[in-house]
Give the backbone structure.
Amino acid sequence: MRKLFLLLFGVVVFATQAMAQRIVTGRVTDEKGNPISNVSVIVKGTTVGTTTKPDGTYSLLLPATGKALLFSAVDMTTVEMQVGSGSSMDATLKSEDKSLSEVVVIGYGTQKKKEVTGSSSTVKGSAVSNKPVQSFEQALGGRAAGVQIIIPNGVLNNPPVIRIRGTNSLSLSSFPLIVVDGVPTFTGDASGTSAGGNALASINPNDIESIDISKDAAASAIYGSRAANGIVFITTKKGKSGRARVSVDSWVGWTTATRVPEVLNSAEYTAYKNEALVNAGTFNAATNAFIQTPGPDGQPIDTKWADLVYRQGFSHSNNVNVSGANDATSYYFSMGYTSQEGIIKNNNFKRTNFLGNVDHKLSKSLSFGGKISYSNELNLAAASSGSLPGEAFATAGLGRAVVVNAPNVAPYLNNGNYNINPANGLLGVMNNKQVQVGFYNPVPSLDLNRQNSENNHLQANFYFQIKPVSWIALKTLYGLDNLLTDNEAFANGLTGEGFIVNSFGGNAASTYSKNKRWVWTNTLQLDKTLGKHGFNLLLGHEQQKSNSVGFGVGRTIVSDPFYTNIQGGFTGAPTAAGLGIGENYLLSEFGRLQYNYKSKYFLSGNVREDGASQLGKKSKYGTFYGFSGGWEITRENFWSALKLDKIFSSFKVRASYGKVGNITGLGNFGALSTYGAGLYGSGATLAFTNAGNENLTWETSKKTDLGVNFGLFKERITFELAWYKNNIDGLVLAVPPPPSAGLPNSINTNIGSMYNKGVEFALNANIINKRDFTWNFSFNINANKNMVTALAPGVPQIITATSLESPSITKPGYPLGMLFVTRTGGVDPATGRRIFINAAGQKVYFDFASPAASRYRFADGTVAPAVGSQDAQIFQPTVPKTFGGFENTINVRGFEINALFTFQTGNYIYYGSYAGLRDQRFWNNTTDVLRRWTKPGQETDMPRPVFGDNISNGSSYPLDVNVFKGDFLKLRSLTIGYNVPRMLTEKAKIATARFYISGNNLLIITKYPGPDPETSTNGNGTTNQGVDRNQVVNGRAITVGLNIGF
Amino acid sequence: MKKYIIYTMAIAGVLFTSSCQKADISPIPTASISDASAFSTPDRILAQVRGLYGAMRSGQFYGGRYLIYNDIRADEFINETTNGVTGLEAWNGTVNTNTNVVTNLWAQAYYTINLCNVFLNGMASSGSGVVGALAPNYIGEARFIRALSYYSLLQLYARPFADGNGAAKGLVLRLTGNTGSGDYNLARSTVAETYAQVLSDLNFAEQNVPLNYADQATNTIRAHRNTVIALKTRVYLSMQQYANVITEANKIVNAAPPFAASTGVANTLQADITNVFKTPYTTTESVFSMPFNDNELPGVQNQLGFYYSKSAGNGEYSLNAAGIVADAGWTAADKRRTFNAVVAGKLYLDKKYVSATATPYNNYVPVIRYSEVMLNLAEARARTTGIVDPQAVALLNAVRNRSDAGTVFTVASFATSTDLINAILNERRIEFLGEGLRSPDLMRLLLPLPAKGTVSSVAPGASNYIWPISASELLLNTLCVNN
């Protein structure tokens, strides 16, 4: 054991034998002449050996029998040198041919990239490290073909939306399976408060070695029932050969809010609203008017609410890791701390995380290893941003408060107190002769309230592997994933959120949720080449068990304003909060056979049988499979006969087909019929509350993939082209029975169908590759077509809400999530009235100033039936036609420039916020209303303002005027780095040093008028995507950092 | 040797893996009870019985809105907040198949009915054996609840019985429990067939529910024999089968004052009506009520007090100044006037449904009061005897006199039986103001829904005299046709 500990810390001492006859010394260098440390130097045929020192030198007592020395190191080709008569032997090690050694992580193993016949993309960890992000996916956008990443908005640690080759489910999740070092982890928002709490933020991006994304059935079928949305494999870093390396990565950054909507200032607002009152015929200077109020300086108050809510956030991140390896042991230990401030005041993210892993070969046949990762994340917020799923119309939402609240009132009264209406807790009206001029005053909310969530996330695994012979490996791996979340919220009675009339008000809630999972995987792998035939067989058995528990307590009305947490004094009785308990279990057997003939023809087959506890008792088990084949044409004789090998260094065609499933997001007990408890006259009740479906099973994806991969000029330029089609059947839909059947719920039934098909293209070109000048260019694009082909009887269409409004429709014959809005015909130049187009296609003129019964009129002046959401038409798609990214990396001497652009075309967005920005109630408006209709004959898109009009511009029901194209080109990140020359670093006794400055989200070219066309008010929602409603804006970050290696 | 140990352990581990944990594949939820064991103990079955009442007590149904809709459709209330969520369209007669009030009440009533059906199925298959002698009681209660639910749906979604003697389209009659997906297309029965089912359930219940329970609190919130009989008087009155009303009422009303039930629960009038609407809400006058307390509330925007009280609620509806409150015969001294109050310049039914405790809206909701049985009997006698029936007058007088000691009705007070009938109908408006009887009282006689405020009168033949069928029913049950 003691030896083991020594090994763990990388101190390896090989005993040397005393029978040596002479001393041999030498120096080991790489191709460029740089010394390599920790190279193993062994006398061939013996155990006698040593390792090189940091300067690459070694000294060894050579036994009399010693004939040759073996120099070996990880990632380097082993060199054998015959012992001559001299006492000095220098060796040069070449790094292994990357193209031969490059591997792709696939389920339960790796595969040489050259042999891959499925469709997958690899992103190096360096692409996502040292970025001003909370979780790695936020930096993944544009880097892999067919992988769409949407950052919903500027709320810190709000989980991004990930879509691999389109949206592949309607009611279940379309989020891919995330497998971290072999263990599927929790995803989504773990936070129970208004702070974002992405579970994936527990993985320090700096600890990631690679991200491999499996896209087709061949690559993913080994994950069977969970593979339909693709799989993202995260591989964390391991020690690399050589002495202990220490690297330190630090950055500091500043984030600012971008593209904040421009709203009227105090004078404009006051005049405009009074004009609207006059137009409505209700203006009265004494009782119904907007009036500015002098501030403490005697000048009229002009409050820019956005400046009081948004800020420049300062962030920093510090990571240190130690790693190393020799032939027997590799290890990696890291610690990271990052503290990030969001663009919203008091929205902060702090993560402290540790990762340690060790792999050790006990003997030639036995090896073991494990990792422990612990992360503590504080997701802090003061008030609701109104930007997480379901919050769009939250009264407290800061995204809306900054544009709605009147600019002619201040957050503070002139006496310094918060400006709050003591009657209702809303923003006080000051001199305005109005009942209401805002929702909540965000300033006290930001000062006094809390919406905090803390995650403690432990991810650990241990494996043991036996290789009785070199080509057989038996492996057992046990993994844990425990995500524990503490939520803590408090709303002060002085704020709108906590206000209760005639009392101290205030409310507090604390909830705790515990998600625990274990996975036990046992595999047998046979890897053998018999002549020209290469075989690799994998057989496995796996169990995964997840348990969740949640509980908490809520309190209302503090008994003294001093109290700010649930433990304090409250007058209201405590109420239970956050209750929940669940479990699910997955029992699986799987196998994979890979075969190649002369590394020319490749065949692969995967099969997996899954049993899932969430499913109906008659349909718990299912079999999934994927087959693929590849043909490396460059290996054919005719290829070289045609001299094509001079151009093409590789040319592989591949095809795959398979059937996989989706159960992500299915409730634990939804398939069961259950009775729930209640009370009647204080007596216990029991009632049938959930009608299950004993036939409920997974959604089935049948995926076809055809592809060509080829490389030119010794792989200087590589291309990947793929066509795919994913037919999804048995989409789970909650099918409503007739209400008279009296069932308590709509029953989840496998009934709908949909497809995604598309083309994907990726190019990587090493355009210039000189010692002092390299230029690498990569590009990828995906064109996807989504089509819903069937829903259910009684479900002709699914109209999906964004909180209070329903601008989305999913209907057979259309892509999912079409925008569903009432059409308009502009503004009548003669009268300034909004023209609606009703369901019958007739023009209907709307005048809010008319009596309620006659507001809607036809062109001839006759009263028309009211137009509403019943007149909505299917309008534009939210699914993009294409998306992708391109990246340039240029290295000139020590300097490096990296620019990543992402783009998207062909989608439309319902910019619901714009309806609010033109609402004619007390709400402040966009400066666009300054071009409102004022006189007959005027052509404009802004109707005549009539105070109280919440219909003309889309607040009452969604309108086409708030739908905009979402095309964009974004400079996602730009980094300029400088690598300090070796001669300088050597003087400083460090190995490498790099400084960089980086910008995130620096530039966006788009016609979209909202803050950001990459948006998702509804988070990971599927049928209500492409909606931008009342959200906070996005941020732009500048970071400065350094990476130092010792 | 070491190697062999390791190999053995590894193989054992693999074998262990494959054999254990199979139970985890079918986990049993711990926070809800499986349908397989819902009938396994007497306690669970009793809890299910309470659950049936609980479903009926939903704020969407008898917890509030059923009563509210039946009042605001008629003429006693004026809408003050023009809020669709709180029944604006029900008030002004503009509901359509999609209106929330139409779809929500339809769904909750049928949910209640299906719970009864599922319960009856479960009792038949195993539950009766578990509870033994109590089984007929429970089954009777379930059938009572089913009957009241169907009866209530008839009042809103079907033409009155008087229109063609029940020949019009009635309800989708569901009599077996539904627990999963299936073909649920079913056409509507006639009004007469639906009433026949209601009576069949009530006749069974009358024979099987207990005479009384251990305490008056339970007597108030669960059906005993007198509850069933009381409901039967209402049902027969709706069908204009006055002789049957008399037969049923006589079972629980003495021939002469003081009027009271002589068997079972001693239901009778209270001396002071305000005591009926006061905690503990369990006087013998409350034949059947929906209980509420601090832990069991009707839910937001469902509470009677929220709708009618201005001082303690939201004042959704004020009293129509041209309605019954304008009746000069309803004297100022009448105790029932104390439920009304002028707040912010308007008269509201401000005090009837306001709880005395700190928690608002935890007052019981009256479903059947003994005074209704008395007035049902009075009306039936007045209509069948064709004279100014002395017992009818006595019953009317008992109701009036206990709240208004200064007014005494005698046979001499009425010139004709019609005058007497009108006086009884008038008394019902006063006595049951805000108790959900006004619109059914008009409709059973095919009277127009009178005009109020800006809303005009609705003639008995008008399409909006009754509600349309829920849109989702029409969409998903292709055999169901709209009114």
